[in-house]
Amino acid sequence: MPFAGGSIYDLTKGAIASFPRDLGPRGMTVNNIQPGSIDTDMNPADSDFAVKMTKLVALGRYGRDSEVAGMVSYLASPEAAFITDASLKIDGGFTA
Questions:
Q1: Per-residue confidence at 3, pLDDT binned at 50, 70, 90?
Q2: Total domain count for the chain?
């Protein structure tokens, strides 16, 4: 179902999708990290909501900020220089 402002949203998504081709020749990579539920002060792993959420996660727990930071660190490293235009889920299997 279309929504108000949907065409603007679609245009911005298209623009973002073109970044790898535009920036690749400059040696820049563009990737998207999609974290699932991460244990934070605002989203604690021991909340009532978390009890319900972890039942939907294949690994059965919330992620840690250090795990997301590790993914970011890897993508920023020379070892990941050939990774671009990737959407990387770090959600413990929530979407599996």
A1: low
A2: 1
For residue 34, what is the DSSP state? Answer: E
- Is 9 within the bounds of a domain? no
80 Cβ neighbours under 8 A, 6+ residues apart: 29, 74
Tell me the whole-structure pTM to 2 decimals: 0.78
Rounded Cα distance, 73 and 39, in Å: 19
What are the CA-CA distances from residue 56 to residues 17, 36, 39 (Å)? 30, 11, 15
Question: For the segment 42-56, what is each residue's pLDDT rounded down to a tens digit?
Answer: 999 999 999 999 999
- Residue 57's CB: how many other CB atoms inside 10 A? 19
- 68 is in which domain, residue-wise? 29-90
- For the question of residue 9 being annotated catalytic, the response is yes
Among residues 2, 3, 8, 9, the one annotated as catalytic is: 9
